[in-house]
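Tokens as discussed.
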């Protein structure tokens, strides 16, 4: 068959330098290059964008109102696209009702299985759903947790009722609500709560509603007495009404979530829990670790049940294949990490039989230990072999080597990138003179001279999630890496145990910088004020003119650079403001210059260029910090909302470069980084340590592990098979430990 190609002509999205590109269809193409070089601009902002737009065009304008909006990417021509499926790291999200089982459609199949083959039958498949009134636990309505009054917040046990022991608003001494307690005759109002008998305390908190007589303006009046928690639940939790702002605040301050006492967190009602197949309830199966469930299911299903069980097994196999065997189906999707979310999405698509699609992945190796990368590779190959085109942005050498075709973007980032450096086979790539190939060819060395360690910080011992009663001991003032396969317990031990015991530790993660459309590197670093002052001093006018949030903003778009146009029966479209051409500034402001440049030209300048341009020491220092973390390619005015998770993390790091004596916790800081940028991050970490900080890094990247001072390796496996500490010590010695999979990969 003739090889077909996706063709792109003269693409100039973001930093792309008028590139032409041909990508073979039905193959795996991997995009490499330093971060900020333009890989995403090609794959997501050009290819996926145009594919989405073309698909939208096939719908009526009315239907399009309900679809995502795509504008035409800046390119002369893009031919031969297929429907794009973007499998990215956006969290799956969902709410407390969505679990791994509901998200992968395994729960509906299990429900079907139970509705046909369980003893006793309790109804149709709905009856086995915790999201359906007929299956849910009535107490928690299928959430598994309930909100209760936080007694520590609501009561001051050192006080008496007379002294105002009840801290809830509206219960102060003398108030009507207080009288119901103080004058009920149940309590000695001068006795401290901590001295109450168990019966008194239970009555105060948990008593069911009953009539009592209290005095009001010298008259006896009937009132209803009920325990404080009972009252709180009735007033604030069990109401169907919309909660008011103040009600919300009250809930936040005075309530806690606890496991539902009625179903013990299982979400189902008793009817469901006592309906079983071979002794297993649907909860027994969903709460089982996936690699266990996959062994159990075939043993308990009869031949008649096989067709349904097969559908479940296929999905389970895919989940285990991709390295998620340590999870169980009850895991709530909002608690999945970015990498885990991406792998779950991947499995959904693997179970579909569509062919001829274009699958687009964003660093699918994120969060995967080198041990599991080959499984990811197998899945990518399977997608291709089904007749799909697979496009992958990736930095991991073990993934790159499976490419049928490689596109390397460079040479550097931002305005210094945006060119195609290489296209061709992996073999030819290795002998190319590109930065990426140079790194792929180099041999790696283990840190033979780690910093000496003396003092340690040790957390409490914990059994949270899968931890086997272990504590984390971290040497002070050095660079420690926490390693182990996905699900081995790294995040639990570091973020849930250690960080809670050392609350002064500072977590620098990949969550978005709190930013709106108006924040950019200049505002984030705080140099915007100095820049405005430079302009106002040079021109003798007020500095507000040089802010698009102030008098300088373009009146037509309000300083946002875009306007929405609303055509009846057509999509609302965001288009560039025709007045300021997206520059956000009033046009007359552009006449004022500083060192020959207008404020708009300054905002378009890259951080690296701005370091050269500005003389002021404070501006230089802050911008240099951005350069140090590898963000020199950002323009001063680029909205922070366009930054990736890895870029956000490095932006936050830049703010910390001049501190000392802190404990930093970094979660996979190499995500999104090219091998050459990893060297950069290592420099930053070492600078932080040199300044007297302690740095703890959760990481799979072998280059980072090799260069650490101290390794804590968790394992041996994920989930129940993990949670032990296999090795603690300097990097060189880990090689002697055969049980450590990390050692095998070093
Ligand atoms: P990569 O995927 O190789 O890391 P990107 O394609 O994300 O690189 O970025 C290439 C360049 O385009 C960078 O300088 C980046 O800051 C810039 N860029 C990316 N997205 C936007 C955007 N929405 N608006 C303006 N500039 C952007
Ligand atoms: P790692 O960081 O090494 O990938 P984790 O600490 O995330 O490992 O997970 C360790 C174990 O704890 C896994 O079995 C995982 O499924 C479980 N786990 C992690 N977070 C949660 C959570 N929020 N709720 C329930 N189980 C969790
Ligand atoms: Zn319940
Ligand atoms: Zn405008």
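Sequence:
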């Amino acid at each position: 068959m003739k090889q077909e190609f996706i063709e792109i002509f003269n693409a100039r999205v973001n930093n792309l330098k008028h590139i032409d590109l041909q990508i073979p269809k039905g193959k795996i193409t991997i995009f490499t290059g330093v971060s900020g070089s333009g890989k995403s601009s090609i794959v997501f902002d050009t290819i996926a964008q145009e594919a989405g737009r073309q698909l939208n065009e096939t719908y009526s304008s009315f239907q399009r109102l309900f679809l995502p909006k795509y504008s035409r990417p800046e390119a002369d021509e893009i031919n031969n696209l297929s429907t794009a499926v973007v499998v990215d790291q956006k969290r799956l999200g969902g709410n407390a009702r969505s679990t791994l089982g509901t998200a992968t459609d395994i729960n509906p199949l299990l429900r079907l299985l139970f509705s046909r083959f369980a003893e006793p039958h309790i109804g149709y498949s709905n009856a086995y759903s915790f999201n359906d009134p007929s299956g849910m636990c009535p107490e928690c309505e299928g959430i598994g947790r309930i909100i209760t009054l936080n007694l520590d917040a609501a009561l001051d046990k050192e006080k008496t009722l007379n002294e105002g022991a009840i801290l809830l608003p509206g219960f102060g001494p003398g108030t009507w609500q207080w009288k119901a307690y103080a004058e009920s005759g149940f309590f000695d109002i001068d006795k401290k709560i901590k001295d109450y008998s168990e019966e008194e305390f239970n009555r105060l908190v948990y008593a069911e509603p009953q009539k009592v007589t209290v005095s009001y303006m010298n008259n006896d009046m009937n009132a209803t007495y009920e325990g404080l928690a009972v009252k709180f639940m009735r007033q604030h939790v069990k109401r169907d009404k919309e909660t008011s702002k103040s009600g919300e605040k009250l809930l936040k301050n005075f309530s806690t979530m606890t496991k539902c006492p009625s179903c013990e967190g299982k979400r189902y009602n008793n009817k469901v829990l006592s309906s079983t197949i071979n002794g297993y309830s649907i909860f027994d199966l969903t709460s089982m670790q996936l690699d266990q469930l996959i062994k159990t299911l075939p043993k308990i299903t009869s031949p008649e049940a096989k067709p349904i069980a097969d559908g479940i097994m296929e999905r389970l196999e895919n989940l285990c294949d991709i390295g998620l065997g340590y999870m169980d189906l009850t895991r709530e999707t909002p608690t999945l990490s970015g990498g885990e979310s991406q792998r779950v999405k991947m499995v959904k698509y693997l179970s579909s039989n569509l062919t001829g699609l274009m699958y687009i992945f964003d660093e699918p190796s994120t969060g995967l230990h080198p041990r599991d990368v080959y499984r990811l590779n197998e899945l990518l190959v399977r997608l291709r072999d089904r007749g799909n085109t697979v496009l992958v942005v990736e930095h991991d050498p073990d993934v790159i080597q499976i490419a049928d075709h490689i596109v390397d973007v460079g040479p550097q980032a931002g305005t210094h990138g945006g060119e195609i450096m290489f296209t061709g086979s992996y073999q030819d790539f290795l002998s190319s003179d590109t930065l990426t190939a140079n790194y792929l060819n180099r041999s790696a060395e283990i840190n033979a001279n780690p910093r000496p360690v003396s003092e340690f910080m040790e957390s409490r011992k914990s059994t949270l999630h899968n931890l086997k009663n272990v504590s984390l001991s971290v040497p002070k003032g050095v660079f420690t890496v926490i390693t182990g396969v996905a699900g081995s317990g790294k995040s639990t031990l570091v973020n849930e145990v250690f960080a809670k015991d050392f609350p002064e530790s500072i977590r620098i993660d990949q969550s978005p910088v709190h930013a709106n459309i108006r924040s950019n590197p200049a505002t984030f670093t705080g140099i915007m004020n100095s820049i405005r002052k430079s302009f106002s001093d040079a021109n003798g006018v007020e500095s507000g003119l040089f802010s698009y949030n102030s008098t300088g903003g373009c009146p037509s778009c309000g300083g946002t650079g875009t306007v929405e146009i609303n055509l009846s029966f057509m999509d609302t479209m965001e288009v560039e403001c025709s007045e300021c051409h997206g520059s956000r500034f009033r046009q007359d402001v552009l006449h004022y210059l500083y060192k020959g440049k207008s404020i708009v030209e300054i905002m378009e300048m890259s951080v690296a260029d701005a370091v050269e341009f500005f003389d002021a020491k404070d501006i230089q220092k802050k911008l240099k910090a951005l350069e140090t973390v590898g963000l020199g390619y950002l323009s001063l005015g680029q909205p922070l909302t366009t930054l990736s998770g890895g870029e956000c993390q490095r932006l936050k790091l830049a703010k910390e470069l001049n501190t000392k004596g802190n404990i930093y916790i970094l979660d996979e800081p190499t995500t999104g980084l090219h091998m050459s940028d990893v060297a950069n991050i290592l420099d930053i970490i070492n600078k932080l340590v040199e300044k007297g900080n302690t740095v703890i890094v959760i990481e799979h990247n072998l280059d980072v592990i090799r260069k650490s001072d101290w390794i804590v390796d968790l394992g041996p496996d994920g989930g129940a098979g993990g949670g032990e500490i296999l090795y603690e010590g300097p990097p060189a010695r880990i090689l002697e430990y055969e049980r450590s999979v990390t050692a095998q990969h070093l």
